[in-house]
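Case study 2.
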Amino acid sequence: MVAVAYVNGRICSQQDALISVFDHGFLFGDGVYEVVRTYNGELFLLDRHLARLKTSAHMIALPLPVDAAGLDRTIRDTMKAFADGPGSGASNANLYVRILVTRGLGDGSYDPASSPASSLVIIVKALAPPPASAYEQGVKVSLVPIVRNHPGSVNPLIKSNNLLNNALAMREALRHGAFEAILRNYRGDIAECSQSNLFVVKHGVAKTPRLAEGLLAGITRAFIMDVAQEAGVRVEDAVLLDEDVFAADEVFLTSTTREIVPIVRVDDRIIANGVPGPITKRLLEAYRQKADQLTRRPAPVQ
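Prediction:
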């Protein structure tokens, strides 16, 4: 089974997961989403993801169709359907869970009153993480000319289903054979990647663009800050320019599905000595240990 999906009250196979072409999520990208993953079969940082989903929905005046407890139950029911399905793979495989809420069916106008009920879609499939070589050898990224959305347009703090800005940036990166795209904001400062947050390390201090630069408040970005403090690594919000990236001792990206991936090349510029650095390695190890600790179930009492 490639994937299963919950669509407005019904759990079905990937082939049968259908939503109306009159849904305003399809017509306008009018909706919000979250991506959650599992470790040890447990949803990781779900409470933080659901809180951000609620915030994103509030920012576009979109009512959520269920409360957090109901959404939690529906996610777990969909995960169970995937696990029970034929060909779902190893039972201990980590899962990818995508939660989407859209404005719902409407009359094709921009009037939200024409869409009285939001749509809820949950997709569950096996997680496909980057290859081991990405962590061991690092990756190349591309600094693309696509500008991150201005906060006064589609605010990047909204995790919106309207992802054309991100898709265009990633298309540019793929044209250059890169793993990811780095976007600047409208002022020319570094903002974030198309699907990740960005960190640079200089003189042992990890720096990441401020939220005020126009970027998503990444769940993993915030978690890394917690982990870094425990690991003895100083982290700062900062204004970063191209030169800060090129002159960094280390650069890495963070996201839910990728964890921490070292960046060793930006287009034709090699970062430092071209190999993953010690701070990046330390944070990745600490991140994975913490994720395992938070999701591992206690052994049964004999």
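Residues 3-126 form a domain with the D-amino Acid Aminotransferase; Chain A, domain 1 fold (CATH 3.30.470.10).
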